[in-house]
Specification:
Elements: H1 2-8, E1 11-15, E2 19-23, H2 25-31, H3 34-37, H4 59-80, H5 87-99, H6 109-115, H7 129-143, H8 147-152, H9 157-168, H10 199-212, H11 220-224, E3 228-231, E4 237-242, H12 246-264, H13 267-283, E5 288-290, E6 296-298, H14 306-311, H15 316-321, H16 328-341, E7 347-353, H17 361-373, E8 384-392, E9 405-408, E10 411-415, E11 431-439, H18 445-455
Parallel strand pairs: 4-9
Antiparallel strand pairs: 1-2, 3-4, 5-6, 7-11, 8-11, 9-10
Helix pairs in contact: 4-5, 4-10, 5-9, 6-13, 10-12, 13-16
């Protein structure tokens, strides 16, 4: 009897951000798997925990929160527009919200933005965590025999799982296959490629601010309460907000830029994540995880083996630390982890604002060589590295709100609101970009700074003052 009750009713979770929330029993089935539980050991903000001691939250609770907000938004829409979607659509979107981060590797974005590119040649395909999430979802379902559970709750397994994966990782080409254009608004809920307004961001803004101890001035509940579905002239549906909520949505993107400036791209975070990346790179040929059919899989190869990927978490640093391998690479890797624990970090040396084209990874390698050449052979390429910092609203130097639709209760149809129609005090530029140079040995800090400042004029750059941008936010811990 208890088993029947558990299978038929939602389960209540007490979330630190959203309070008591209900999750569909199929979502609970997904949560109670090793593949989803793995997310308990993936820090939401990667190495930011070493800078902000409160940032100890994980991808596990963020995924549950995203699932909750997806359900809440659809509940609000269906309250007034009952034909907008059906129960199967609703459940698919909730599952997509729940599973959208299954593919994150150790220390979240450090893994797919820094570590994996180290092993991707020009002939090797690019990989991102959204692709990993889709592969892990397939693996999760197969390993836990959940196909019958999907069908039990009215889902067409083949069609709806394909739709869920489209929601997690929307294809670049339209129209989408999972649902017709009349239901295209469903693709704007979990991962909104059109303008970036989605429940994924709403949860991590609220959750990250809560754990970082930074005030969150964006109220997603206010925006949700006024959202509805509108149709364009070709019959394609989109999500729209009330015109009076323009300021709230603008504040959402302001919060995004603030979090990037103060936390996500904090220079100490950059230093520590690079140290972890360097340690993992050194250990790549020496640390193995059990993959499919007992195969021994390297760290960088885990993205192609979901059995091994299930075992790969932030605990990789402890796997490195606890290794007794005498190999020189492993000795160096352990030393790097030890340096993090004793706060002997890579040092930020100097930075400069970029006003033109953002440099590519190839450009950065060239810049390092040019800076090193100014040191009179006192520096080598391995002594320094350059990081690019982009602070924007999520759409490069564009205003994403000019791609979002609004409606008014006094006039029919949906429309776009330009920033200059609202206030002359809103920004006219939507991106700041900087390059920062770091050294791996603190004894080289002064020399690196001098070489960087000597190099800047050749590129038309002006070095920033020591107290610019990040110094005022730097924490010690």
């Amino acid at each position: 009897m208890q088993h029947i009750i558990d299978d038929c009713y939602p389960k209540i979770f007490n979330d630190s951000v959203h309070g008591h929330i209900e999750l569909h029993p199929l979502c609970v089935k997904i949560i109670d798997t090793p593949q989803f539980q793995r997310l308990r050991n993936i820090k939401q903000l990667g190495a930011t925990y070493y800078t902000y001691p409160g940032a100890c939250h994980n991808r596990f609770e963020h995924c549950i929160g995203t699932c909750h907000l997806a359900a809440k938004l659809l509940r609000q829409i269906r309250l007034h527009q009952t034909e907008a979607c059906d129960d199967q659509d609703d459940l698919c979107v909730q599952i997509a919200g729940l599973c959208h981060d299954l593919g994150h590797g150790p220390f979240s974005h450090m893994f797919d933005h820094q570590f994996i590119p180290e092993f991707q040649t020009q002939t090797y395909r690019k990989w991102n965590h959204e692709e990993g999430s889709c592969k892990m979802l397939d693996h999760l379902i197969a390993e836990n025999d959940l196909k019958s559970e999907f069908e039990k709750y009215g889902l067409n397994f083949e069609k709806d799982v394909a739709f869920i994966k489209e929601l997690i990782n929307p294809p670049s080409e339209q129209p989408y296959k999972g649902r017709p254009k009349e239901k295209q608004f469903l693709y704007e809920i979990v991962c909104n490629k059109k303008n970036g307004v989605d429940v994924d961001k709403w949860d991590y803004f609220a959750r990250d601010c809560h754990h970082l101890g930074i005030p969150n001035s964006f109220d997603h509940n206010r925006v949700i309460s006024n959202m509805m579905v509108v149709n364009s002239s070709d019959g394609t549906s989109h999500i729209a907000a009330r015109d009076k909520d323009f300021d709230q949505l603008h504040e959402m993107f302001h919060v995004r830029s603030m979090l990037h400036r103060r936390a996500y791209q904090h220079r100490v975070n950059t230093s520590i994540e690079t140290m972890i990346c360097d340690a993992m790179t050194l250990a790549n040929d020496h640390i193995f995880y059990n993959g499919e059919n007992g195969k021994r899989v390297k760290i960088s190869e885990c993205i192609d083996d979901m059995f091994a990927f299930t075992r790969l978490t932030d605990n990789v640093v402890f796997d490195i630390m606890n290794s007794e391998s005498p190999h020189a690479d492993m000795v160096k890797a352990r030393q790097l982890i030890q340096r993090i624990h004793t706060r002997q970090l890579y040092q930020y040396c100097a930075g400069a604002r970029i006003n033109e084209t953002i440099p590519s990874s190839t450009d950065l390698r060239k810049f390092v060589i040019e800076i090193v050449e100014l040191s009179n052979k006192k520096l080598t390429k391995g002594d320094i590295f350059i990081s690019v910092v982009r602070i924007n609203y999520g759409d490069k130097d564009n205003n994403p709100l000019e791609k979002f639709l609004f409606y008014s209760k006094n006039s029919p149809g949906a429309f776009v609101i330009r920033a200059d129609e609202v206030s002359s005090m809103l920004p006219s530029s939507f991106q700041d970009c900087y390059i920062q140079v770091f050294c791996r040995d603190k004894n080289m800090k002064r020399l690196t700074e001098q070489c960087f400042r000597g190099w800047c004029p050749s590129k038309g750059l002006t070095p920033m003052r020591e107290d610019d941008v990040y110094a005022k936010y730097e924490l010690k811990g």
